[in-house]
Fold this protein.
Amino acid sequence: MSQSAITLDALQALDAIDRRGSFAKAAEELGKATSALSYTVQKLEEQLAVTLFQRQGRRSILTPAGKLLLDEGRKILGATAYLTDQVKELATGWEPRLRIGLESTTEREPFFRALGALLEEQPNLEIDVQECVLSGGWEALEMDGIDILVGAPGPVPLQKGFRALPVASADMLLVAAASHPLAHVAKKPSAVAEQLPRHRRIVTHDTAKHNVMRNAGLTTGKQVLYVQTMEQKIHAQLAGLGIGHLPRRLIQTRLDSGALVELATETPSTDDPAYYLAWKISNRGKALKRLSRLLSDVFT
């Protein structure tokens, strides 16, 4: 396989000449002699059998062939710089990418505040946030689909090698839209209990694909509307399409405005389900450790 005439040194030379407008200024920026830079460009032109620069007064201007080469070449320079950063970060213990599973009931503002603090410290860190529901987050963590899970409902799966820290509860409330028939008896637990089975419930799909899926909240009634995300569930309930449990922190403004109404129940739950921040013990990346501390600070 013959060696390509297009090298990183040649691309860096073209980039500097184009930005600085002359061989002399580009050579000064790159710390090279002007003659050495001229030789690099001349050799590249000979090997490619094209003219890359033409003179316009005191400036060196790219020809169409030179512009095409530099436009594509800058993509290579950018990718090379990114790869260099990744290798350096990995060598220092900072992983280049962090995949986060965010449980649908988790309050967004403190989560993104903690994430923002991490990105201020590590601006080159690539972040991938995925929404998880019920068993789906635990499954994704077990199968290495994510690196850290935020706000997952208990119980913590045993013998999976997970490190789990308890975080603040989601404070789930049974609510209906102000326009929903149950809103008229919202403060009468016996009436709510009697009418519940006759109304559609809104359920967020468990994102688990391989493990046993589970349901949470209402199990009464035959009419069910399944949605994919908590945002969809909130808007479905605001539209009066059904009832269901929603996290207080995500709907407080709608409760305050009267758009949603909390439904009283005869036997309110005194056992608040546990929620967790979790990751695999085997994952020792510095980014994960730093984010886990930041999240623990804002959620516990």
About this structure: The radius of gyration is 29 Å. The chain is about 40% helix and 20% strand. The mean pLDDT is 88. Residues 6 and 44 are 7 Å apart (CA to CA).
